[in-house]
Amino acid sequence: MTTFWKMFKGEMRKFKIVKIRVRKKLSKKDKEIERNEYLKYKEQALQIVNEKILKVNSIYNFNFNKISIKNTRTRWGSCSSKKNLSFNYKLVFLDSAAQEYLVAHELCHLKEMNHAKSFWDLVAETIPDYKVQKEKLKNYHFGAHE
Asked: What's the pLDDT tens digit per position in 54-66?
């Protein structure tokens, strides 16, 4: 969240810029296209996640329960308190470095369930350029690819 100072009614006041997300309501046809795309790439996404987990988790050695691939509209991944990892199938459209960051990010939530400095230090152990990769994901447009 960004803050700035501005003159308002003769005095300086602090304002905050709040990011607002507007979700487009999908038509029935668009939902069908999105569902077909999800089904088309789900297995490929799972394969990528499994490969990246083997690589990254060879350093962390974290225990987790289940891996799932989902069709979420705004999230790249999540880690539950039950140690289940979920990933967005659209990771197949990312480059390898961004995919690896995404997997490392969710794996690190197995130890740190927040985004404190200790969490980012843990991510940096395997992804030194995590800030660059994080920015890639932030700027990705979650639209259809067909």
From this structure: 999 999 999 999 9
